[in-house]
Amino acid sequence: MSAARLDPVTTAVIAGGLDSIAVEMGHKLARMSYSSIIRESEDFGCALCDADANQLCESVQSTPLQSGPIPGYVQGIERRFAELGLGWRPGDVVIHNHPYYGASHQPDVGLIVPVFHRGELVGFSGTTAHHLDLGALTPGTCGIVDAGDAYAEGLHFNALKIEDEGRPNEVLWQLIRDNVRAPHLVVGDMEAQVTAAKIGAERMAELIAHHGLETFRLACADVMDYSDRMLRREIARLPDGTYAAEGLLDGYPDHPDPRYRDLRIRVAVTVKGDELTVDLAGTSEQIDLPLNMPFVGTVDLAVWVALRSILLDTDTHDPVPTNSGLFRAITITAPEGCLANPRFPAPTIARFSGGNLVADTLMRALAPILPDAVSAGTGTLRIISYSGLRDGGHWVYMDIHEGSYGARRGKDGMDAVDTLYANTRNNPIEDIESHYPLRVTQYELREGSGGAGTWRGGLGSIREIEFLEETGFSLEGEGSVWRPPGLFGGEDGTPGRILLNPGTDREEELPSKFPYRKAKAGDRVRMLGPSGGGYGPAAERDPAAAEADRADGVA
Which domain holds residue 534? Predict the structure, then answer.
């Protein structure tokens, strides 16, 4: 902790200024972006860091899985710069997405701008966003679930200066345009990221100039120390000991090799005083398909977000600033070569599914000592990519099919929402049908599917889409084999399903993840989202709550 202290009013003013900058960055990035995955689903992140890559704040309207990894992006860039003998200069803008240099996974591209004050590097402004296509074998960056290694996942930008001391790198911009299928969307989104990051850097420099660098640094140290104290206080209230749980991923159910099916995630949490260690030893070994998770950028975020949500629940605690101080008390370990800490060049593009189960399993590990703060098993979301050719060019659309939460003490699980560490939004039907040759023919809650319990699990949704033209599509998902588990006597939830041409003589059940395949005009794909587990014995459910479900038509 820092020795010197500022008065709390000055600290609060500077902290509020930083938060306002991040929120402004987020709003402007969303408004300037071209693709619906950023504009509507808000699959982006904005954050400011100090010169040591400590996160100072993040945009609250974006997903934790985008904002949270930004310090790792900065650290990865600096590691790569050290290898190449490079450094930061005023006017630089760096593009970065290498999953073994701190990036969350290859489709999440970071644009990082350094912040200078009187010639001294004092911080970084960064944006990340999920991009629709980055030049892999098939369209749609979340459907490349058959990639055999990291190179098959598309373009890697490893700490490349896309602007060098204010001079645009036109060759790099042209390389991107020439190697992605929807350059007007991808490059437009990247340009929006650059602009938002520059706005953040300019505002941060103004804030430092106004208050002075030493005062700014003291305020940042105070805020990070405060977040550290708040989390340590909650950890210290837990009984010392080790608590463990396991979860299973579908993996690739139709793969002939059993090493690719029923993949294990094991989490052991050790509490000692005011510190906590999360160990993933016992997790299945890495595979040469894209379910592996970058240790930095995915696994760490899954752990941090789950612990922050459990220990500092905003329903029972005052808000605590999200910054790097919040995670000082947490140590995360995973054996090298496992799904949670793979070796390069193991592919990682579908890392979301495993990371979601890391967070879910972590909650079940803590359930014996935090029964009031955790939920039963969650139904994870899916991301489906659609694409085709029109007017001599590609169109690409990525649809987020939401999941559902498990129940918790006193509350039924939330229905049809993104879960755990993602926090993205679905896309309005009007936006889909006005931009793409797709028609949404069904969108509703999956009635009666939540795990029964004293409090029932959340309901997944049903979303059916008809193809109006020949279309290619692919899916990254989980939860079609293993049920979201119930908790404390609650029943398990319902697994998901994916049906092609349901109710016809051509009906086909598809697995929870599949690579690019073609469909004809008139074909329909129906996705049934998994539903969360129940909490507590069903016999103890309040009859009024059961009657309300029946009246609402969701029982």
Answer: 375-555
Instruction: Name the domain boundary from 226, 247, 269.
Output: 226
In a domain, 438, yes or no: yes
Q: How far is the C-alpha of 326 from the C-alpha of 500, rounded, in Å?
A: 45
Residue 286's contacts (CB-CB under 8 Å, 6 or more residues apart) are 292, 337, 338, 339, 342, 343, 346
3-state SS assignment for residue 518: strand
Q: For residue 518, list its beta bridge partners.
A: 472
Q: What is the pLDDT of residues 391-409, one digit of tens each?
A: 888 999 999 999 999 999 9
Q: Considering 226, 254, 282, which residue would you say is the last residue of a domain? A: 226
Per-residue model confidence as pLDDT tens digits over 91-140: 999 999 999 999 999 999 999 999 999 999 999 999 999 999 999 989 99
The pLDDT confidence band at residue 3, using thresholds 50, 70 and 90, is: low
352: left (phi over 0), alpha (psi -120 to 50) or beta: alpha
pLDDT value at residue 1: 46
Burial (0-12, 13-18, 19+ Cβ within 10 Å), 81: middle
Within-domain flag for 479? yes
- pTM, to two decimals: 0.96
In a domain, 91, yes or no: yes
CA atoms within 13 A on the CB side of 374: 23
Residue 363 belongs to a domain: no
